[in-house]
Amino acid sequence: MARPAFMRGQMEKHRGFPSRLPGTDFQFTIRRANSSGPTRLIERARHADRRPADRAADAAFLAALIEHFGDAPFERGNLDAGRLSWLLGREVVPAEDPFDPESYDALLRVDRAAARRAFPSLFDEAGD
Hints:
This protein has helices spanning 52-69, 81-85, 112-118; strands spanning 74-75, 92-94, 107-110. By secondary structure, the chain is α+β, with helices and mostly antiparallel strands.
């Protein structure tokens, strides 16, 4: 999945990935690379008292990741750093070592077991 040298530094645009949670301002992707460099991914703590809308956005974003990438590693690319940070270290984990949290080329993957524990409603009883 590594890009040729001439393409490095360019941001992968995940075609077909939803740009936001429908009917809200919760952003899932960005349109263009940040001119001062990628926003650093951080592990954000999710507290039990988060607003229902925030929890819904997390669930919808995770569902889109699972639908779009499945278990396969994926590049961070144009996925929103803030939205990824709410899932990082739990449902979304680095897929490479060393992991560069300030790279659009950083590889991530969905940890389906963690996703199932945190968001059981995303999975049907057939084992999906």
